[in-house]
Design goal:
It is a single chain. The chain is an alpha/beta fold. The protein has one domain: Dihydrofolate Reductase, subunit A (3-Layer(aba) Sandwich). The protein has 4 helices and 13 strands. It binds NADP nicotinamide-adenine-dinucleotide phosphate. The site of NADP nicotinamide-adenine-dinucleotide phosphate has 29 residues, from strand 2, strand 3, strand 4, helix 2 and strand 7. NADP nicotinamide-adenine-dinucleotide phosphate (NAP) binds next to strand 2, strand 3, strand 4, helix 2 and strand 7. It comes from Arthrobacter silviterrae. Keywords: NADP, One-carbon metabolism, Oxidoreductase.
C-alpha cells in the first residue's frame, strides 16, 4: 500500500464509507449550529473529496447549510431525522430523507457513486456512524476556539495514514493554519491517482 503524503490526492481501491470533518486542536467541530471558523481551502477540499458521491448527514447539519447551497450539487444528499413529516417541508427540498441511519447508509451505497459514501456529521451522526465507517478525512485547524459540538474520538482500531503537509501546517489565505489528515481502519487501501 502506498501512503500518499497529500491526502487530497487519494483514491480508494475498495468501497469505503468515510467520515469527513474539520476540527480544532481540541476536537471542536461546531458552535451555535455552525462552524466557528472560515476556511475556504477546507471547503474546496471537502468539495473535491465528496463530489460525485452520496453524502449522509443529520438534520441539524443540513440545516446549517445556507438554503442556496443545499442540496450539495453533484451528490445524493441523504438526511436523517426522527421528525415525521419533516421530509415534506420546504426546508427539506432536494434531500432524500430517512428516519434511520442504517437505512441511510444502505441507500447511500445504492446511489450513484456509492462505492464511496461520505458521512458529513454532525456530532450526533458521527458518534453513531463510526462503527460502520472505515475512513476518516479530518482537517485539523490550528485554533483553540471553543464550541458545543465535538468530533468523535477515534479508537485503537483506527490508524493514521497520511497528512498534508507531512509536518507542520498549511496557511490559508486568511492566515488560518490547517492540515489535512487521513485515518483508516484495518486494511483499508488507497493509492494516489495517476
Ligand atoms: N466541522 C465540521 O466538519 C462539521 C461537520 C458537520 C457538522 N458540523 C457542525 O455540527 C453541528 C451539528 O451537529 P449535531 O451533532 O448538533 O447534529 P447532527 O448530527 O447534524 O444532526 C442531529 C439530528 O439528526 C437526526 N438524527 C440523528 N441520529 C439519527 C438517527 N439515528 N435516526 C434518525 N435521525 C437521526 C435528528 O434530527 P431531528 O432532530 O430532526 O429528529 C438529530 O437531531 C453544527 O454546529 C454543524 O455546523 C461541523
Amino acid at each position: 500500500m502506498s501512503t500518499p503524503d497529500s491526502p487530497e490526492l487519494y483514491r480508494f481501491t475498495q468501497p469505503i464509507v468515510g467520515m469527513i470533518w474539520a476540527q480544532t486542536n481540541q476536537g471542536v467541530i461546531g458552535a451555535d449550529g455552525g462552524m466557528p471558523w472560515q476556511l475556504p481551502e477546507d471547503m474546496a477540499q471537502f468539495k473535491r473529496v465528496t463530489m460525485g458521491h452520496p453524502v449522509v448527514m443529520g438534520r441539524k447539519t443540513w440545516d446549517s447549510f445556507p438554503a442556496k447551497f443545499r442540496p450539495l450539487p453533484g451528490r445524493t444528499n441523504i438526511v436523517v431525522t426522527r421528525q415525521e413529516g419533516w421530509g415534506s417541508t420546504p426546508g427539506a427540498a432536494g434531500a432524500v430523507v430517512l428516519d434511520s441511519l442504517d437505512q441511510a447508509l444502505v441507500e447511500a451505497q445504492l446511489s450513484p457513486g456509492g462505492n464511496e459514501v461520505w458521512v458529513l456529521g454532525g456530532g450526533q451522526v458521527f458518534a453513531q456512524a463510526m462503527d460502520s465507517c472505515n475512513v476518516a478525512a479530518i482537517t485539523v485547524i490550528n485554533t483553540d476556539v471553543p464550541g458545543d459540538t465535538q468530533a468523535p474520538a477515534l479508537g485503537p482500531e483506527w490508524s493514521f495514514r497520511g497528512a498534508s503537509p507531512v509536518k507542520g501546517w498549511h496557511t490559508s489565505r486568511n492566515g488560518t493554519e490547517y492540515r489535512f489528515t487521513l485515518w483508516a481502519k484495518g486494511e483499508t487501501e488507497f493509492v494516489a491517482p495517476e
